[in-house]
Amino acid sequence: MDNKKQEQLNTFRTDDLAQAMTTNQGLKISEDEFSLKAGDRGPTLMEDFHFREKVTHFDHERIPERVVHARGFGAHGEFQVYKSMQEFTKAKFLQDPAMKTPVFVRFSTVIGFRGSADTVRDVRGMATKFYTEEGNYDLVNNNMGVFFIQDAIKFPDLIHANKPEPHNELPQATAAHDTFWDFIANNQETAHQVMWIMSDRGIPRSFRMMEGFSINTFRFINAEGIAHFVRFHWKPLLGVHSLVWDEAQKISGKDPDFHRRDLFEAIECGNYPEWEFGVQLIKEEDEFNFDFDILDPTKVWPEEEIPVNIIGKMTLNRNVDNFFAETEQAAFHPGHVVPGIDFSNDPLLQGRLFSYLDTQLIRLGGPNFHEIPINKPIAAVHNNQRDGYHRQMINRGNVSYHKNSLANNTPLPIAEAEGGYEHYQEKVEGQKVRARSESFNDHFSQAVMFWNSMSAPEKTHIINAFSFEVGKVKSKSVKQQDIEMFANVSGELATKVAENIGVNPPQNQTEPKLTKVSPALSQENTIKKLDTLKIAVILADGFQGNIIETLALLRSKKLDIEIISDKLGMVKGTDNRELEVQHTFLTVSSVLFDAVLAVGGSNLNQKFDQDATNFVKEAFMHYKPIGAIYAGEKWLQENNLTNGIGVVVNSNNRKFTGQFLDSISAHRHWDRKVY
Ligand code: HDE
Question: Do residues 545 and 630 both lie within one domain?
Answer without folding.
Answer: yes
